[in-house]
């Protein structure tokens, strides 16, 4: 009421406050205020008791305990100490990197490589249940042993992100958190919008407002080339024929990156990954579940394009991708803005990170058969029109020239390493992947 009293009131109003009618109104409004305060407090109470299960972080039941776990340690000195220790730079001229999606396939490998060479690394991951969470936990344990701590939280949680920047003034952000997968978009479209669009904006909002602004390297996707038929795919080709919602959200990400670079001077590098595979990979990818099904003696479906056309992928081994990610971080220029304002033009880049040698999916299966010493039960199916494209093939000359990127692992060699990991992790097929 105080600030209302300070407002010079008109003589007419002053008069009204003196009238008995107005006093009555004042009383009833006080009663109303009290009543609504109670209702409001009640709502807050109900909200806090219900919010974990109704949270929008992918609406995953498993988030419940995780979120409250994170909230309970949120801001306590031991938590901050772990964060600082993990992000501590040991190498001269090393960087401090916030890696989102750190418990993911690429996130784990990139975090571990950065840590090995003496950079400071802090992970962030929401451990959602899109695929087997125990695999994510195992990756987390792996990182923990090398001194990388993963904060459990969502990239949409701006308060948490700001808090992390308060604790560590990150020089770089490696933004890998995303909703992956092409076909799952038909089951859960909103999770793509939530992670790949809203989540990206949330990360960029925080990056633009902190001081100093970090440089950002983030994961786009080869899927932005969509239904393009001109090969190999080059960064200058058009990317307006997406074949899946996943591709559309990654394409949207590239446009959003342009905006934040243009308005706020954020240094931004998007990496278009081409079918990344290897040890600790994602169980939703073909090479992974083919391995599982071949070992189980289960039939596998191999897609074929119309007129017996070959479906091929430019499979890229994880170690090559990691080298590309590190090179992108190393060559990233500083952001130019401060206090949310742009001071000059900043770097904006996009690179293909592929292997430049597409392999037909049927050849992938033959390699797996040899490595597993088991014959696959093949079923040939028509390529469904629900997101998968017939082939991908990267032109990597730009990344070669500007990042010194040069993939060195062919599919045979890479799959051999994957199979060795798979058999040791899942105990020779006795404990199979979920
Ligand atoms: C690959 O891309 C570069 C531009 O980065 C272009 O000059 C070159 O012609 C492309 N190569 C092919 C085979 O399309």
From TrEMBL:
Residues 52-72 are annotated as: Disordered. One of its GO terms (cellular component) is Golgi cisterna membrane. The chain crosses the membrane at residues 30-49. It is a multi-pass membrane protein. Its main location: Golgi. It is found in: Golgi apparatus, Golgi stack membrane. Residues 52-63 have a biased composition (Low complexity). Its EC number is 5.1.3.6. It catalyses: UDP-alpha-D-glucuronate = UDP-alpha-D-galacturonate. It holds the Pfam family Epimerase. Keywords: Isomerase, Membrane, NAD, Transmembrane, Transmembrane helix. It is an enzyme of class 5 (isomerase). Residues 97-334 form the NAD-dependent epimerase/dehydratase domain. One of its GO terms (molecular function) is UDP-glucuronate 4-epimerase activity. It comes from the Eukaryota. Belongs to the NAD(P)-dependent epimerase/dehydratase family. Homodimer. This is UDP-glucuronate 4-epimerase. It comes from Cinchona calisaya.
